[in-house]
Design a protein that fits this description.
By secondary structure, this protein is α+β, with helices and mostly antiparallel strands. Helices cover 38% and strands 10% of the residues.
Length: 250
């Protein structure tokens, strides 16, 4: 299978292709971090498309325009083509908006924003706590993911906490331009897509004539808490802490 994929890529002639062929499988987290870091060492910005995500025509141009427009605005740390009705504010019409929780499905960023991704999610989480930043602001799934990041070789949770630590924003479209087609029982990192299945994809919106100011929509944090839960009660936090401590001892 690996050989067949490489042969297909080597045969691509409709665009310039630069291949990085590794002797071993790095797994999800190490692979994404190494790949994006390598690209951003050579380029100011990048868009990342994974093989199990499909987009409507115009998505690349739409996100490229956003990257170009906000390239010098340090508060904007990333762009994405994905959103979902359950986490899209109800005052959004045809214009894009900003969210304090970043995304990992068809997304882009700049070299300036990627700085700091060498630190683990647990380190970033600890610094957020030291600065009295609410680590549950965008959902209770994030602290839990930070604890298993290295063991599970995942990566996106540290990207999300890097945004939260810096007060960074993610640019989102008014409706999703992206659908995930990798949900199945054999998938390694996306085994159940029922919660995040989207309505049929709509056409890509026009590139804005007037771009929105980088201000987070006031509904975003509460919508993520509705989706994933907020700060647990102190008995639950105590039980979780005990489980984590016992797990480390074992």
């Amino acid at each position: 299978m690996v050989r067949e994929v490489r042969e297909i890529l080597h045969g691509t002639d409709w665009c310039e292709v630069i291949l990085c062929e590794r002797p071993e499988n790095l797994g999800l987290g190490r692979s994404v971090r190494a790949g994006v870091t390598s690209v951003l060492e050579k380029h100011d910005a990048a868009l990342i498309f994974e093989d199990d995500l499909i987009c409507v025509p115009g998505t690349y141009a739409y996100l490229s325009a956003a990257l170009e427009h906000y390239q010098n605005d340090t508060q904007v740390m990333s762009v994405t083509g994905w959103t979902h009705p359950s986490v899209t504010p109800d005052n959004i019409t045809l214009d894009p908006y900003f969210d304090g929780r970043a995304e990992c499905w068809v997304w882009g960023t700049w070299a300036r924003a990627w700085t700091g991704m060498h630190r683990s999610a647990r380190e970033l989480l600890a610094e957020c706590k030291a600065r009295h930043i609410d680590v549950y602001r965008y959902g209770a799934d994030l602290p839990a993911m930070a604890e298993i990041e290295l063991a599970r070789n995942i990566w996106a949770v540290r990207w999300l906490y890097l945004h939260i630590l810096r007060g960074g924003l993610c640019f989102r479209p008014p409706h999703t331009l992206v659908e995930h087609i990798g949900f199945d029982s054999l998938a390694t990192n996306a085994t159940d897509g029922r919660q995040w299945s989207n309505p049929p994809l709509e056409a890509c919106p026009a590139i804005p004539n007037q771009w929105p100011e980088p201000i987070e929509n006031s509904q975003c944090a509460s919508l993520w808490k509705q989706a994933y839960g907020g700060r647990p009660s102190w008995p639950r936090r105590l039980r979780r802490k005990l489980r984590q401590t016992l797990s480390r001892w074992i």
